[in-house]
């Protein structure tokens, strides 16, 4: 069970083990979903419509984008920015899951509400994600820059990117897009955790026998469902965040089509709506939903798997 459960939580694992489980779940998942993440970012940053009917559109579909990136940049392009992305996943997973477990336990001990309530999981999930975001946002900016650049590359290495960005754009560059990130991540993560718990309870109610036997499948299925629903509800803010994160990086985007400069979140939202219409706020939704289903499902699957592993290890080591 994700989160503190006073009635069923017998996983006597430490905070360090919770953090390790969160880190490893993020690491393994990141390796698997990186290609979809690169395609999603390319879609989000494209000003032109994602349509074959637009002759200036570089990308117009998942398979077409995948083939074009492979032809132009080689297979390694799908793991562009993988080192900062892994640092992001490891750090984010550790801080988020540890914060969530601590916050839900605090709610229970304060006797405010049932720690398993939808609203408690929504609030604690959102807060834990904000804490994790503040800790790793500079790495997210680096990952976006690496994934967004074409050939020839502007940044050759991670160190080169850090030095160049700091020298040319100042220290605040590493927190570009922070406001829309926090605004987007709170409801997104809140819905992830609360919907995941609700789907698990619904699954166990609908299939009581199956719920006991196929725990790993249940975690994967409910995590995927939670990821799709959460991403759909909060997607436009994710797009605005990506547009803001590549501000000042226009020279590396020239080969992909039109580029725009934005003064802030409201200006970005206004320009997108005026120039690209409401559908422009959902560019890249299809690869994003596929990625959300896989990544959220796998993150919860691996997290619960490692937590259970640590629990069984402790039981095996304890005196009988």
Structure, briefly:
The chain has 320 residues and is mostly helical. Helix content is 70%, strand content 0%. It is built from ten helices and no strands.
Give a description of the structure:
The protein is mainly α and 320 residues long. It is 70% helix and 0% strand. The protein contains 10 helices and no strands. Helix 6 runs antiparallel to helix 8 and helix 8 packs across helix 10 (285-317). The longest helix is centred in the C-terminal third of the chain and has 33 residues, at 285-317. The protein starts with 14 loop residues before the first helix and ends with a helix. The mean pLDDT is 84.
Structural class by secondary-structure content: mainly alpha
The helix content is: over 70%
* Percent of residues in β-strands: under 5%
Rounded to the nearest angstrom, the radius of gyration is 20 Å
Looking at the chains present, what oligomeric state does this protein adopt?
single chain
- Indicate the mean pLDDT: 84
Low-pLDDT stretches: none
Number of strands: 0
Number of helices: 10
């Amino acid at each position: 069970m994700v989160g503190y459960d006073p009635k069923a939580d017998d996983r006597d694992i430490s905070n360090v083990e919770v953090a390790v489980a969160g880190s490893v779940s993020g690491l393994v998942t990141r390796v698997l979903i990186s290609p979809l993440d690169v395609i999603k970012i390319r879609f989000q940053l494209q000003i032109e419509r994602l349509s074959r009917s637009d002759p200036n559109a570089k990308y117009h579909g998942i398979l077409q984008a995948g083939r074009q990136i492979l032809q132009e940049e080689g297979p390694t392009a799908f793991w562009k920015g993988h080192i900062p992305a892994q640092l992001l996943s490891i750090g984010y997973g550790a801080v988020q899951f540890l914060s969530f477990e601590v916050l839900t336990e605090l709610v229970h001990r304060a006797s405010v509400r049932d720690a398993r309530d939808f609203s408690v999981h929504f609030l604690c999930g959102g807060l834990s994600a904000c804490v994790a975001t503040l800790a790793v946002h500079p790495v997210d900016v680096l990952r976006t820059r690496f994934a967004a650049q074409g050939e020839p590359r502007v940044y050759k290495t991670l160190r080169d990117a850090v030095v160049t960005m700091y020298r040319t754009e100042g220290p605040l560059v590493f927190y570009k897009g922070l406001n829309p990130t926090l605004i987007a991540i709170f409801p997104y993560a809140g819905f992830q955790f609360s919907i995941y718990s609700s789907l698990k309870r619904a699954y166990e109610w609908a299939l009581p026998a199956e719920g006991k036997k196929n725990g790993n499948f249940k975690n994967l299925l409910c995590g995927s469902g939670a990821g799709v629903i959460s991403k759909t509800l909060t997607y436009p803010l994710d797009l605005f965040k990506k547009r803001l994160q590549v501000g000042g990086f226009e020279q590396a985007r020239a080969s992909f089509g039109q580029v725009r400069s934005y003064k802030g979140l409201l200006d970005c939202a206004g320009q997108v709506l005026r120039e690209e219409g409401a559908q422009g706020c959902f560019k890249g939704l299809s690869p994003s939903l596929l990625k959300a289903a896989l990544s959220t499902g796998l993150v919860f699957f691996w997290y619960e798997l490692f937590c259970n592993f640590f629990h069984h290890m402790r039981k095996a080591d304890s005196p009988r």
